[in-house]
Amino acid sequence: MTSSSSAEPTRRDFLFVATGAVGAVAGVAAAWPLISQMNPDASTIAAGAPIEVDLSPIAEGQDIKVFWRGKPIYIMNRTKKQVEEARAVPVSSLPDPQSDQSRTKEGHDQWLVVIGICTHLGCIPIAHEGSYDGFFCPCHGSQYDSSGRIRQGPAPLNLAVPPYAFISDTKIKIG
After folding, report:
1. Does 140 qualify as catalytic in the annotation?
2. Could you say which of 108, 120, 128, 140 is catalytic?
3. Residues with Cβ within 8 Å of residue 16, at least 6 apart in sequence
4. How far is 97 from 76, CA to CA, in rounded Å?
5. pLDDT tens digits for 7-48?
6. Is 114 exposed, middle or buried (0-12, 13-18, 19+ CB in 10 A)?
7. pLDDT digits over 101-122, tens only?
8. What is the pTM for the complete model shown?
9. Which site among 2, 22, 48, 116 is 20 to 30 Å from 142 CA-CA?
10. Are 97 and 145 in contact (CB under 8 A)?
């Protein structure tokens, strides 16, 4: 009778470990599609899931464009001069009267967040263009100021402000 020491690995030990490892990989491979199918579909996300945007890389006087619900959203870090000019405009002189304060969040006056779709025929205006240092729609000449309010041209309404909130001083949630 031969006896083997329990300290030495045997072929049986190797087969036991190898079978366990293959079983674990097979279990993960079977569970992955089950868990993955619980995530929302890309069309559901595009249809309105909120997005978070980090504002820290946007320098004063710059803007970025992000997409939410398939629409371009302009986020502009306005200069003090742009804010002062927007607030100096008499609201009664505007085609679609809205104050600058009603279009921004209190305490975050330098940040303008608007849907970048011209209210005339749905074109995409260009930021920092036109006579009012705001947005210019080259298709039909609509000009918006640095608060996204219509100042000149055929557009009947101001650029829309999407629902958004500040999560922190450097991050917003749109939607």
Report:
1. yes
2. 140
3. none
4. 21
5. 788 888 898 899 999 999 999 999 888 888 888 777 766 666
6. buried
7. 999 999 999 999 999 999 998 8
8. 0.72
9. 48
10. no
